[in-house]
Design brief:
Keywords: Repeat
Structural class: alpha/beta
GO molecular function: thiosulfate-cyanide sulfurtransferase activity
Number of strands: 12
Strand order of the largest sheet: 1-6-5-2-4
Number of helices: 12
Catalytic activity: thiosulfate + hydrogen cyanide = thiocyanate + sulfite + 2 H(+)
EC number: 2.8.1.1
Shape: globular
Protein name: thiosulfate sulfurtransferase
Helix content: 25-40%
Radius of gyration: 18 Å
Largest sheet: 5 strands, parallel
Length: 309
């Protein structure tokens, strides 16, 4: 099973490498981005100094996965790719359950095997705007699974290195623990059938890059384009040049300028529900509380429903 999972993760990574960096972040200067008045604040984020000061008391996850960690990661970080917690071992992208969160029993087993204790604070990092929002995807899953204290590092791995935290190659392994997950909280999840049935009730937000939204087939999608009437808010536009999130005020303006209101029912999607999970959490922290992530995302929709270009 481990060999099958590894091959699935490798195949998916090779298919979609580089998507997260298709668009450069559009933002203010680094000086302004790090000003106290423009720093992002939210219940699901911490800065690199927080990690540095609390490294012995938290579970730190390198959401970039094993391959990236082998090249360099924070010394006490546990490497874990989002695919480890998703159904990617059977079928192919676009199939009904491919890429969705694992069912509770299997999810609990995998988190337990990695030592991810529900009673500990869990902090995740990835590659900010240069990646896929992998930390957001795993954080979104952990919150749905009942983990209460989950954070993402604003600025990602680069910020941790800049803070002077020790790095090594390969990361660390924790002792297995018992994890119980009776059910997943569905408040911020939506599946294809539900979205299709209630489509007119939602504002649908596409967080992919321009070329994806405009119809190019880059990562094995069944066809190119976007969901009908989808509003584009690029994942990469949420970040400053240094990889930190823009301020809450500027992000709120970004969303509102796109035609989104805090009272709207919103669905975010991307290619496989990764960038869109990160976006859902950011929107939540900006006061957009009625947002669901479509983890089947464009892979599934493009295979079974009509799209626009």
């Amino acid at each position: 099973m481990k060999k099958v999972l590894t091959l699935a993760v490798l195949a998916f990574g090779l298919t979609i490498t580089g998507c997260g960096s298709s668009n450069d972040a559009t933002d203010d200067s680094t000086k302004e981005a790090t000003s106290p008045k423009t720093t992002f604040k939210g219940e699901y984020t911490v800065d690199a100094d927080y990690v540095k000061n609390n490294l012995d008391d938290i579970i730190l996850i390198d959401a970039r996965g094993d391959d990236a960690a082998k090249k360099g990661t924070v010394k006490k970080a546990v490497p874990m790719a989002w695919q480890y917690l998703a159904d990617v071992e059977s079928g192919a992208s676009g199939d009904e359950n491919w890429g969705l969160v694992l069912e509770p029993k299997k999810l609990a087993e995998r988190l337990g095997d990695k030592g991810i204790d529900k009673d500990k604070e869990v902090v995740l990092f990835a590659s900010a705007q240069d990646g896929w929002g992998d930390d957001g995807r795993i954080a979104w899953e952990l919150l749905a699974a009942g983990y209460k204290d989950v954070k993402m590092v604003d600025g990602g791995f680069s910020a941790l290195k800049d803070a002077g935290i020790k790095t090594n190659k390969g990361g660390t392994e924790l002792k297995p623990v018992d994890v119980e997950i009776d059910s997943l909280n569905q408040d911020h999840m939506i599946k294809t059938d539900e979205l299709k049935a209630d489509y007119d009730e939602y504002k649908v937000v596409d967080v992919r890059a321009d070329e994806e939204y405009n119809g190019e087939v880059l990562y094995g999608e069944a066809k190119g384009g976007h969901l009908p009437g989808a509003i584009q808010v690029r994942y990469t536009d949420m970040f400053n040049k240094n990889g930190t999130l823009k301020s809450n005020e500027k992000l709120t303006k970004l969303f509102e300028d796109a035609g989104l209101s805090k009272d709207d029912k919103i669905v975010t999607y991307c290619t496989a529900g990764i960038r869109s999970a990160y976006t859902q959490l950011v929107m939540d922290m900006c006061g957009f509380k009625n947002v669901k992530n479509y983890d089947g995302s464009f892979y599934r929709w493009a295979k079974v429903e009509d799209v626009e270009k």
